[in-house]
Amino acid sequence: MPDSGRIVPRVTEPPVQVAQRLRARERVVVHVDTLAARWVGALALLIATSWLTVLMIRAHHHHTHWHADSRVAWSLTILAAVALIARGIFLGRPVTAAHAIAAAIAVLAGFAAHLLAFDVTGDVLVAMSGLLLMWPMTARPEPAQLARVWALVEATRGDPVAPFAMQTLKSYFFSADGTAAIAYRTRLGYAVVSGDPIGDELRFEELVGDFVGMCHTHGWRVVVLGCSERRLGLWRDPAVIGRTLRPVPIGRDVVIDVPSFDMVGRKFRNLRQAVQRTHNFGISTEIVAEQGLDDRRQAELTDVLLSSAKGARTERGFSMILDGALTGRYPGVLLIIARDKAGRVQGFHRYAVAGGGTDVTLDIPWRRRGAPNGIDERLSVDMIQAMKQLGTQRLSLAFAAFPEIFNDKQRGALSTFFYTAIHLGDSLIALESLYRYLRKFHALGDRRYVLLPLSQVLPLLVVLLSLEFVPRRRQLPPTASAST
Question: In the chain, at which end, N or C, are there fewer CB atoms within 10 A of the end residue's CB?
Answer without folding.
Answer: C
